[in-house]
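## retry 2 of 3
previous attempt timed out at serialization; input unchanged, resubmitting
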Amino acid sequence: MKIFENRNFVKLFFAALASQMGTTIGNMAFAFYLLDRFSHQPSYATLAELMYSLPTLFVFFLVGVVADRFDRKKVAENCDWIRAFLTVLLFGSLFLNSIPLIFFLLFLRSAVTKFFYPAEASLVQGILSKEQYAQAAGLNQILFSIFMVFGVGLGAIAYQTIGLKGAVVFDFISFVISAILIRRCKIPMEARLPNGKAKWKDFSLSSTYRDFKDGILYIVKNKLLASLVFGFFVFGFVNGAFSILPIFTMKYELSPDNYEKYASFFAISLGAGLLAGSLIGTFLSSRFKPHQMMIYPIFVSGILIFMLGLTDHLGIFLATVFIIGTCIGPINVAIGGWMPKIVHPKLMGRVSGWTDPLMMFAQSLTLGIIAVVFPKFISNIEYLYYGMATVILFVFLFYALTLPKLSKELEYSQRKLSQRTGKEQIHIS
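## retry succeeded, writing output
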């Protein structure tokens, strides 16, 4: 692939992987630690997950504006350095054995993380051609799948071998590697500062509000973009449920004595499925339209998630999870390759800054609901899977009714623009 000839992309790609890997190893180890220490209070593990998603609600109006107004390379790099420093504080807090302090530091570290991905995604858009967006999305999804296969499993292994403190040290090393990779990138200033150089004195509450409003107006006026962003919101419900339900399923139903082991197997099954699905999606991206790669896999995913609630057989559960991952892969490739094509580079940060908070809001809401209802009001985990499947099937109906029409409208407008541009060039010549 020619995309690998772009050294900046390769460095950014592995920087994002190292950053995400580091976060997940420590997070999963901490979840296992809480389930061991507070076995009869599963809400503690849910609250830990909440510390990773809840910060979005406090910084969502800033992340996109920062990515569009300031040097995107410096924003992404400094996010890594700050998280490395907070990880050092987190390591020290483990010796104090203060759960509230640990939760607070996890909250702060997650808040800083929210600024990383809009800046990194905007940099990637600035260094690639439009023809490479789908390839980049497929490659990102493939490596994310590999990271899922090994990342969560390594979290469990790290907790069982080197302990929670060792996992936190791994986090620190990952953030440092990510920062160094980003620093070594040689990215043109027009990709780093597409809106020109900004000064801190120009960064006021009124200017932040204006940029934030411009981002949401841009999304709302573009019906196709608004539909895709809505999808991120709904998928946040699934992310929230999948971040904690598999552990609960293993701990309280399928394998109480070996739940760490089989929770890792869940991650391996889902990650392997995502890897297979991403490979398939990357191959199909040039043969099928993005909306076709989204609608049908969403429908199959909804049916299979419903089946997760019906089965009490561990092998069938893991096999079903693998197929769900295979369905999710093409969806992510389609969205990842489609959005950069329809979003102006000057607004990519603000648009990316909206997708994450919407996902995290839905994820936080899901985790909050699970913390309240399980096991106090709902003692059967399968009902939570049924609810998740219902949400996914509603998304399928929405996309089946809207995406084909909006896709045709986009193709028509792009064709008209191309024809008009061609006529202008002929006239000039």
